[in-house]
Amino acid sequence: MKVYTICLKTYMIDQFAKDHSLPSFRITQFNLAYYKEFISSYDELSTWPKALREELKSAILFSTITPSTILESKDKGTQKIVFTRISDEKRFESVLMRHDDKRNTVCVSCMVGCPMGCAFCATGKMRFIANLTAREIVDQVLYFARILKKQKQVVTNVVFMGMGEPLLNLEQVMEAIRTLNNPHCMEFGIRRITISTCGITPKIYELMKLGYKGRLALSLHAPNQTLRESLMPIAKTYPLPELMSTVKAFATRTQLRVSYEYILINGVNDTPEHAKELVNLIGEDIEFVHINLIPYNPIPGVSFSRSTSRSIHEFADVLSEFGISNTFRVTMGDDIKAACGQLANS
Ligand code: SF4
Predict the structure, then answer these.
(1) Which of 31, 166, 218, 339 is within CB 3.0–4.6 Å of 334 for a Cys-Cys bond?
(2) Among this protein's residues, is 110 annotated catalytic?
(3) pLDDT digits (tens, 9 = 90+) for 180-189
(4) Does one domain contain both 166 and 19?
């Protein structure tokens, strides 16, 4: 029996169909059931004869990841899944956030652990363990799409803000995005996908060269080079001036607002002076800028604490005074360690 091991189901199903001399409508039936109707097992692929389904079962895994632990926040707004990769049993986490405005955002991981070592991030403390494949990334989205389907809901947004730095696993991330966006697969709108990076400047250029038309978020977290280096080691390699001009070039090319993520840490980066420095860093070109203020979420072994609500408001007021679009992100899922910076296979 041939077992198909190449990365993506889209290619595997083409190969399977070829090897079994199947007419093209079988692929159409498969894609409809798998990527649009979100079947929960191959047994539900009712447009295929049973014997063919049995062949498919033994040839192509239905999913490359299995949920090991499922956690739900008290308010039911956030669900965190610890997934196990079938290939090597390594574990990573993904999060579903259900917003009051009916958006359902899936926060996917692209790595197990992360090599970037940001001071405020639990994933960074794990260090790098493995890259996820495109199929493992797509399988995270499909998992949540199946859950939401049972509640007559859909995934509305996908953000690469889980474990890992997406631009350091760019080939697999782009392949996953192509599958999500492919009209024959999920047909997921490209502008509802966000890649979040800690600032790998040359890879942002590469993203532009690849013609990526989705959204970009920059984990900024500091308004000057010295402070950023102390929070994010990658800043030493890719200094702020060049990074900022690259991100602005991305915004100009895509005509999409870039989201600057800024975790507010008590007494570290949250004073009105820091806010003014941030205004200066952004400069006059504010049309495509949005600053997402995020409360620091505590992680074990790190002495940072969350900014007071007074500091947060003062910080936001400075940004607003200079006309910079900003929002304060409501913390979701911190009771199950699913909030920003807390993912660590807990
Ligand atoms: S914030 Fe992002 S880039 Fe930094 S260590 Fe955490 S996962 Fe990696």
Answers:
(1) 339
(2) no
(3) 999 999 999 9
(4) no
User: For residue 157, what are its two tokens?
Assistant: 């947004």
Bridge-based pairing of strands 111-113 and 104-107 is unpaired
What does the block give as tokens for 312? 């947060």
The DSSP 8-state label assigned to residue 269 in this structure reads: T
Give residues with Cβ within 8 angstroms of 175, minimum separation 6. 7, 8, 134
Bridge partners (DSSP) of residue 159 are 107, 194
Helix H or strand E segment including 29: helix 24-31
**Sequence-ordered list of residues with C-beta below 8 angstroms from that of 318, at least 6 positions apart, any chain:** 272, 275, 276, 279
Residues with Cβ < 8 Å from 338, sequence gap 6 or more?
71, 73, 78, 79, 80, 93, 95, 332
Distance from C-alpha of 343 to C-alpha of 110, rounded to nearest angstrom:
12
Q: Per the residue annotation, which of 55, 93, 165, 175 is the catalytic one? A: 93
- For the segment 206-219, the average pLDDT, to the nearest whole number, is 96
Give residue 7 CA to ligand 1 midpoint distance, Å. 25
Do 317 and 250 fall within a single domain? Answer: yes
**Burial, 66: exposed, middle or buried (Cβ in 10 Å; 0-12, 13-18, 19+)?**
middle
Confidence of residue 301 (pLDDT cuts 50, 70, 90): confident
Final residue of a structural domain among 42, 59, 76: 59
Q: Do 26 and 153 belong together in one domain?
A: no
